[in-house]
Amino acid sequence: MGRKIAWGLLAFLVLSGLVFYVFAYQWPPVRDPALTMPDGDPAQGRQAIVKYGCSSCHVIPNVRQATGRVGPKLEDIGRQIYLAGVLPNTPDNMIRWIMHPREIAPLTAMPELDVSEQEARDIGAHLYGQGSVRQSRPGHGGSGGGHSPR
Ligand code: HEC
């Protein structure tokens, strides 16, 4: 009788330990999801990126013209922690930065481009990788030359 209780207790401890482990360490591991921009249209964003010439200063996935190296590459920015090293990367801050970079970082080389809020939202959706093949196919092609995204 006492043995039965002991075994039961042991089983309970092992099981609850397992459950705790799964929750505490997220096992099996899950990839942290990239940020997403609510109400942003990535296709419109892509057009706005070309229209405002973001492409002349930034490398941006799925925008062929975007090979500029004045500013940082914007690949995988949905997983970056800070924007421009000063703003926590959130959808709202992404919009703020795109609309008014100089209000946030007065010395930045990134110009005020008079981007509307909806356009900034759409651009953000594109930059966060929404609606792109990248999302369903993790791992980018590296710098391997000659691969032209549409
Ligand atoms: C004249 C060049 C230039 C243009 C045009 C430009 N940027 Fe930038 N951008 C920069 C520079 C330089 C930085 C780095 C800012 C800093 O760290 O202070 C930057 C930073 C950024 C960042 C933060 C990147 C990071 O890694 O933290 C985002 C997002 C961004 N730009 C988006 C845009 C978008 C969208 C447009 C078009 C509306 C645009 N930029 C147009 C030069 C430019």
From TrEMBL:
The question of whether Cell cycle is a record keyword is answered with no
- Name the domain of life this protein comes from: Bacteria
Q: Where is the composition biased (Gly residues)?
A: 139-150
Q: Which regions span the lipid bilayer?
A: none
Outline the extent of the Cytochrome c domain: 40-131
Assigned keywords, A-Z: Heme, Iron, Metal-binding
- InterPro entries for this protein: Cyt_c-like_dom, Cyt_c-like_dom_sf
Family annotation (PROSITE patterns): CYTC (PS51007)
Q: Where is this region: Disordered?
A: 125-150
Q: Please report the name of this protein according to its UniProt entry.
A: Cytochrome c domain-containing protein
- Native source species: Geoalkalibacter halelectricus
Taxonomy of origin reads: Bacteria, Pseudomonadati, Thermodesulfobacteriota, Desulfuromonadia, Desulfuromonadales
